[in-house]
Structures are given as structure tokens and as C-alpha cells.
Amino acid sequence: MSTFETWHGALHRLQNEGEAHVLATQVTSLGSTPRDPGARMVITLNECFDTLGGGTFEWQTIAAARSLLQAHQYGFHVEAFSLGGRSGQCCGGYLNVLLEAFPGSSAHIAVFGAGHIGREIISLCAPLPWSLKWHDNRADVFAEHFKHQARLTCHSPYESQSSVATLPPHTHVLVLTHNHDEDYALIAALIKRDDLASIGLIGSASKWASFEGRLKREGYSDQQTAQVRSPIGLVHGAKLTNKTPYAIALTVVTELLWLTNTPSSQENRGLDSRVLQTLMTDPTTTTS
């Protein structure tokens, strides 16, 4: 149990870092209960922050929250506790706990290159629920305000092989450095993996044709080179005549939105209004 961070401090940090978590809020109370409605705690798969009052019902709340995280069941859920029955606590009251499960980052994005287009891409990604890793070998290339952007980590310097090796599975990767040799080294390292979500390379069709020919001469297979998408940012297969960094970045992020799009499989969104009405009159009601 973590004691050095309050629930609101942990909630803010986890939202910024993009880690999945549950906010547990006591919403009703009848009879004798450890705490009153409004008590909150935050729960991750490995840590807890703040308390609902302790005791068996709190551990049951933690277990329920972690079950939601493990099953990727996000949204609102209610747990009901008869403290003398379900939880075996002597105070004997009744309470309901609202569990708000947040999924954290919905996608991992790695951007190699912090030039004009790279900076615009990172800025456009800021409001999106993505975890961003940004790499560039040039000193002092990351402006100070980027270092405070939520869900973003900056890496400089980096080494192609080791940086690629540490990317999480299913990462979407963009290669747009200031150096063609560096681009090539990254692509050669990336296509050795078979668990990345996508690999995009900036540049013209002729640049990719040159890279592809070199890769095949060096023994890379058609299956490996087919992982690379180049040019990037083609919307409906059309070339953009506006070649400003911002315009190019817009098309690249639009492309990423489609690549990361995963329709929700949950038909039930939020709590049924009838459940809320019941909770107002009967705090022992439960639903999920």
C-alpha cells in the first residue's frame, strides 16, 4: 500500500503517464461505515493510493478493481458491500463503491526525429491518449515545453539497435530523422522485429525504392520490407501539394488515427439511469 501519494496526486500522475488505473469512490453509506461518501482511492495492477478506510471490504474493492484492469473492462462499475455479511466486518453497515476504470494509453507511438515535422507531429499528438517516445541524437533539440507534455518521454542520444529493441510490442513507429543513413539504420533494425504495429518512413517513393533495393541486397526478405509504409501521410492515396511541416504532420497524425482505431466492443456505456435511481433509495444495490 503506497502512503506517500494522495489519490488526487496519483490520479493526475497516472493520467499524465498513461497507465491504466481505477478511481474508487464511496458513493453511499447506510449505518456504521469506516468512512463517509466521497472517500476515494486509486488502484493500479501493482499499487494503491489513499484509502477507503481499510478492512476486508477495501481489499475486496482492490480485488474487484484489478479484475477490471486485467479483463480490460473500462468505464463505470458499482460494487455493493454489506460490511457484516459480504465483508465480515463488525461495524455492520452498508455502502456502495463506484469504480471508474481508465484504460491508460490507447496506443504506443515512437517518433525518431525532432525536426520541423517531428515537432509538429508531437504537438498534434498531445491531446490524444497515446504514449509517445521521441528520439533524436542532436543535443538540446527538445524544447523545454515538450519535456512537460503528458505521456511523452524524450530520448537523446540514442543508439538505433538498442532503442528499437526496447520498444513495446505493437508500437507504431515513425522514422523521420535529419540523416538518411540514420533512417536506413533504424529501418533495418525495425524490420527485424515482427511484433510492431506499423513502421512509417518519411520521404519520397524514390527514397524508399533506394532503401528497399539496398535492404534486399543485404538479405532482408520481401515480408520484412513489406512492413514499411513510405511515403507516410497519404490520405486516400493522394499526394499533398501543401508541403509545410504542419500540413504534412496533419496527414501523418490522421493516418495514425486510422491505424490505431479500434472500435469499442462494449455495448453498455456508462451506468443505466434506473440503477442510479435505485442507488439513491437502496445503497445495497449492485451492478457492473
Automatic annotation (TrEMBL):
Residues 278-288 have a biased composition (Low complexity). Gene3D superfamilies: NAD(P)-binding Rossmann-like Domain. Residues 110-256 form the XdhC Rossmann domain. Residues 15-73 form the XdhC- CoxI domain. Residues 264-288 are annotated as: Disordered. Pfam families: XdhC_C (PF13478), XdhC_CoxI (PF02625). PANTHER family: ALDEHYDE OXIDOREDUCTASE MOLYBDENUM COFACTOR ASSEMBLY PROTEIN, XANTHINE DEHYDROGENASE SUBUNIT A-RELATED. This is Xanthine dehydrogenase accessory protein XdhC.
